[in-house]
Each structure stands twice: as structure tokens, then as C-alpha cells.
Amino acid sequence: NRQRAETVAQAHGCTAYGLAELPQALALADIVISATAAPHAIISRDLLAELAQQTPPRRRVFVDLAVPRDIDPTAGNLPGVHLYDLDALRASLDAALAARYNEIPLVEAIIAQELAILETEWQKLAIRPVISDLRQKAEAIRQQELSRTLRRLGDVDPQTVAHIQHLSRAIVNKILHEPTIRLKQSAAAGQADEYAAAVRDLFGLVDANLEQL
């Protein structure tokens, strides 16, 4: 009813008009959405044509959601009047859905590509602890053997010690360089688990996860 309409309109800073005031309301509106249960059109072509003569020329959009229609379909032929009914909206929606369905293969391909990249990165992360453990063990052996050698050499000047340190590090790095590259390649190929298990077994490396159990 009118009172309820005015209450709702005031709550949102709007103005309620009765059906008898439709011409005045249409004169103020740029966008009209109509959805009544009227058995016939309540906005005629003549009404909109007269409205166009009485107001400055401008673009008006009418959206007719009613069944049967609230707005005379021929009104859409008037200058400045853009009329959309349920059939037009449904056709537009169908076209939009069809366009989205056509994009599904592309989206699926993108998802598959990103998942492959994620899997590769995950495999690389899985192999890192093995590489780290291998290098730590090699470094521990280097330091142990270096200390033993320096004890045997007795009084050695700092420069000689530095040269021996550099030599031992270089040897360890060169020996581990190729296995490190191969381990990373195996991870990229999805074989991280197999290679990691083999390296841990060959070099006697303890898996931190198993050690905690």
C-alpha cells in the first residue's frame, strides 16, 4: 500500500509515487525497472512519446521484468528509449553464459599449467632437506679431517691454514656440485622421493621426520 511504500522509500532516502503520479515520476527518472502484476501495459508508447516532448532529450533505460509486460514493446522504438524485457535479458544472459562456457577449456588449461608448476616447486622443496643434510655431513667430515691434518702438521702459519681451508672447501664443493644438480633435476622431473631415499641410504643420512618418530 501507499503508506508502506512511503515508509520504505523514506528509509532509503527516496520518494514514493502513486500510479496516478506515474508521468511525474517518469519525468524524473533515467532508469525505470518495472515489475507489477498488472494484466496490461501501464507504460504506453504514447506516454513515453509525450514525456519525450515535455523533457529535455536524454537517454532513458527501461527494464520490464513483468509477465505480462508492463511497458508497451513498441516504446523501445522511440528516440532515447532503451527497452529491455525478460526475453532480451534472457538472451543476453544466455550469450554471456555461452561465452563463459567457451572459456572453460582455456581456464582448465591454465589451472593444469599452474598445478604442474606447483608440483614442480613442491618437488624441489622436498629435495632441499636432502641436499642440506648431504652438505652438512660433507662439511662435518671436512672439518674433522682438517683438524686431524692440522694437528699432525704441528705449528703451521695462518696463511698456510687458510690455504688448506680453501683447498678442502673447494674439493667438497666440486664433489657435491654434480650430485646437487642431479638431485634438483630429479625433483623437477617428479622423482624427488626416489632420489632422496637413494641419497639418504647411500650416504647414511637420517631423515629428520623419521628421527622424530
Gist of the model:
The chain is mainly alpha-helical. It is built from seven helices and three strands, in the order H-H-E-H-E-E-H-H-H-H. It has a three-stranded parallel sheet with strand order 1-2-3.
Main-sheet strand order equals: 1-2-3
**Structural class by sheet pairing and helices:** mainly alpha
- The share of residues in helices is 55-70%
Mean pLDDT: 87
Instruction: Report the C-alpha radius of gyration, rounded.
Output: 40 Å
Question: Could you name the ranges where pLDDT drops below 50 across 5 or more consecutive residues?
Answer: none
What oligomerization state is this entry in?
A: single chain
Largest beta-sheet characterization: 3 strands, parallel
Determine the N-to-C terminus distance. 73 Å
Question: What's the total number of strands?
Answer: 3
Strand content: 5-15%
Sum up the overall morphology in one term: rod-shaped
N to C succession of SSEs: HHEHEEHHHH
- Give the count of helical stretches: 7
Explain this structure to me?
- The protein is mostly helical and 213 residues long.
- It contains seven helices and three strands, in the order H-H-E-H-E-E-H-H-H-H.
- It has a three-stranded parallel beta sheet.
- Helix 4 (86-153) packs antiparallel against helix 5 and helix 5 runs antiparallel to helix 6.
- The radius of gyration is 40 Å and the shape is rod-shaped.
- The model has no long low-confidence stretch (mean pLDDT 87).
